[in-house]
Amino acid sequence: MEPFKQHTGLVYPLNRTNVDTDQIIPKQFLKRISRQGFGQYLFYNWRFDKKDRPREDFSLNFPKYKGTSILVSGENFGSGSSREHAPWALQDYGFKVIIAPSFADIFSNNCTKNGLLPVVLTDAEVSQLIKNAESDSYHLTVDLENLKVYDDKGFETSFTIDEYSRSMLLNGWDEIAVTLTHEDKITEFEKHHVVY
Amino acid sequence: MTKPKTIIEKIWEKNIVHEEGNRAILYIDLHLVHEVTSPQAFEGLRMNHRKVRQPNRTFATMDHNVPTKDITNIKDEISKIQMDTLRKNCEEFGISLAGMGHKHQGIVHVIGPELGLTQPGKTIVCGDSHTSTHGAFGALAFGIGTSEVEHVLATQTVWQAKPKTLNVQFDGKLGDGVTAKDLILALIGKYGIGFGSGYVIEYTGEAIRNLSMEGRMTICNMSIEGGARAGLVSPDQTTIDFIEGREFAPKGEAFEQAKQEWLALASDEDAEYDKTIIFNASEVEPQVSWGTNPGQTVSISDLVPNPDHAKTENDKNEIKHALEYMGLEADTPIKDITIEHVFIGSCTNSRLADLEQAASIIKGQKVHPNVKAVVVPGSRSVKVAAEKQGLDKLFLEAGFEWREPGCSSCLGMNDDIIPPGERCASTSNRNFEGRQGNDARTHLVSPQMATAAAIAGHFVDVRTLA
Ligand code: SF4
């Protein structure tokens, strides 16, 4: 996994709450057996019409959001199905950071395990960012080392993330390798643990 | 005296391998695998030259992609690849697989309990959010992502933060015609789809004690729809009776030993929870979801909500958006909503008891001519058992289709897709946009309510049927 330290990018505002993983990547695209190539199907039912043509009225298709890498959305982002295809699709499309007032548990987990950073800000901050990004071409910097989010116009705030996810992301660690440094403990545990 | 503990704390402590601050490496006792969320995990193992640590604590089946009309005819080439990939991966890594046509094949959350693999006190994971279903047995069971599937395959553990505990206490008795499905829908309808976030729920109270294991599974299944990663019920005699004699359950002496340990896992009296919700089960009516998330649910005697009565601007927009997608007018009586499809199945409501309940409403009547109704048993064993009782004939004579086991119309990943703009009364757990097919409209209901709607062509209150 690529280490994540700091990122500056164009913000895309998705002004919806409870965006679920069925929306992020509809199930008809879950059939691939590799991790790559899901970006083209991101938000498919919103981005494309029945004949698979891009819908001009869906904001992600607006030219001004081309090249976006920071998604800002409403509360409970990533609810529903545990499919890791959702972070894969967001990442493959080019997103590096997702900002929302809250995330669904499994989704947030799945993000950090893939080097995609979920940032929790307050409702008011998120509304402000959405407004900025809707009206203008708006860039933000997200700094995981110092836990700050800021723009070049004076907006600045801090965020928290659990220390474990933070060090995984900062170092780009492979979690299995980390766990296997405790392999002797697992072996010891298995000797006494009863499973019927 | 030791401090009283909840079952959640007891299981957690029993399975910790290593702790770092608030996080721990938790040992996994049972890992269930299906074809959709596993291919990339096995690919990762191969790339890093890793093995499956405990193939005998891993069990695989096929469900999401299964064609339920004719299992020998997989029309979708990519579905076929996904299923072949699982077969090859299981062979390569030495994992038991109940593949297509196997006598144990079925929806992963139906077969675990049915085979006796699901037991009290176990930590159970699967790359599927409805793994919470297994919590009905007093297991700590939760869904994981594919990276975690790979992690469990390689290490038989996952990293977890110690969960907060939420006691949902259902007081009182369920009324006639009201089921476990209505109870959980009513709870989510009242508290929304985020109330359980960050918690493991323990369901307690008189209404839970009186439920069958099937009913408890329905409740735990939908814990994730309330935002909780897991939900469970302390084991009691009902739990023990269900497990005894099942294929992978301990036998004889070992069963007696296990039974004592299992019963001792139940939450201690006076155990403290981080939060408690008390909910009166006796007031619950049959439920019908009207919107595009499971929290958008009302009682059968209610009207479709009106956005103008919403408390916040945000709620107003959400209701508007949902009504538009669902093609519904505000203030329409739920009973006046007509449907074109009925789906009885999914890991929420496809067990033998669910099918019996659904069939009990038929009473010689026929499916409405405008409705296409399908019954999909959750597993091959359910199908065989139902046929032994003649349920298949009851359904077929009434005009239902009777299918092969699988996830089917719960999600449009196979041939069983609800067409755009059409409306389905479904016993499944999610009514998200596009869940049952592009632009398909889903109303979540109990099995009885589904049958009643199939016959009437619109929603009816099962309590009013003679
Ligand atoms: S029946 Fe539906 S919810 Fe259950 S495992 Fe299958 S797709 Fe998921």
Q: Give the beta-strand count of chain B.
A: 19
Question: Quaternary arrangement of the chains shown?
Answer: heterodimer
Biggest beta-sheet profile of chain B: 5 strands, parallel
Q: Quickly give the structural class of chain A.
A: alpha/beta
> Which kinds of small molecule does this entry bind, naming each only once?
iron/sulfur cluster
Assign a percent range to the helix content of chain A.
Answer: 25-40%
Tell me the span between the first and last alpha carbons of chain B: 55 Å
Strands of the largest sheet of chain A, in order across it? 4-3-2-1-5-6-7
Strand content of chain A: 15-25%
The portion of residues assigned to helices of chain B is: 25-40%
Q: H/E series of chain A, N to C?
A: EHHEHEHEHEEEHHH
Q: Largest interface, per-chain counts?
A: A-B, 52 and 71 residues
Task: Tell me, briefly, the overall form of chain B.
Answer: globular
Proportion of residues in extended strands of chain B: 15-25%
Count all strands of chain A and give the number: 7
Largest sheet of chain A: 7 strands, mixed
| Mean pLDDT across all amino acids of chain B | 95
Rg of chain A, Cα atoms, Å: 18 Å
Number of helices of chain A: 8
Whole-angstrom Rg of chain B: 21 Å
Quick structural gist:
Chain A has 196 residues and is an alpha/beta fold.
Explain what this protein looks like in three dimensions.
The complex is a heterodimer of chains A (196) and B (466). Chain A is an alpha/beta fold. In chain A, 32% of the residues lie in helices and 16% in strands. Helices cover 31% and strands 17% of the residues of chain B. At the A-B interface, helix 4, helix 7 and helix 8 of A face strand 1, strand 2, helix 2, helix 3 and helix 5 of B. The complex binds iron/sulfur cluster (SF4). The site of iron/sulfur cluster has 13 residues of chain B, from loops. The site of iron/sulfur cluster (SF4) has 13 residues of chain B, from loops.
